[in-house]
């Protein structure tokens, strides 16, 4: 079931990238795709009936869920936040220069110059 949610979110993000002419909405669509991929990777690492990968004297290694997808997603979240911050700062600079975030208006202003 969670796979379907991830695929629906990826579809929404791709639809937003293909249809939106506003750069802020484009950045939000990229963030939605990033989140959906993280959800998908985490859902791949889940195994029904297994324990959290924390060692104790009462559990064996055979009962653990693989911690690698969790580590990869944690790294991907940090990279995603950095990418979002960079994209937001670039949007601020674009808005300061062109006073709009609409792609068609920016292209028209650039053609005049």
Give an account of the 3D structure.
The chain is an all-alpha fold and 113 residues long. It has a single domain, classed as Helix Hairpins. The chain contains 4 helices and no strands. The longest helix has 31 residues, at 68-98. The chain is elongated, with a radius of gyration of 20 Å. It starts with a helix and ends with a helix.
Q: Any idea how many domains?
A: 1
The helix/strand order is HHHH
Q: Might you state the CATH topology name?
A: Helix Hairpins
Oligomer: single chain
Beta-strand portion reads: under 5%
Distance between the termini: 52 Å
The rough form would be described as elongated
- Which ranges are low-confidence, i.e. pLDDT below 50, for 5 or more consecutive residues? none
The CATH architecture term is: Orthogonal Bundle
Find the structural class using helix and strand composition.
mainly alpha
CATH level-1 class: Mainly Alpha
Largest sheet: number of strands, sense, barrel closure: none
Q: Report helical residue fraction.
A: over 70%
Using only C-alpha atoms, the radius of gyration works out to 20 Å
**What is the mean pLDDT?**
90
Tell me the number of helical segments per DSSP (H or I, 4 or more residues long). Answer: 4
| DSSP, total strands | 0
Family: Belongs to the CPA3 antiporters (TC 2.A.63) subunit C family.
InterPro entries: CPA3_antiporter_subunitC, NUOK/Mnh_C1-like
Subcellular location: Cell membrane
Pfam family, one: Oxidored_q2
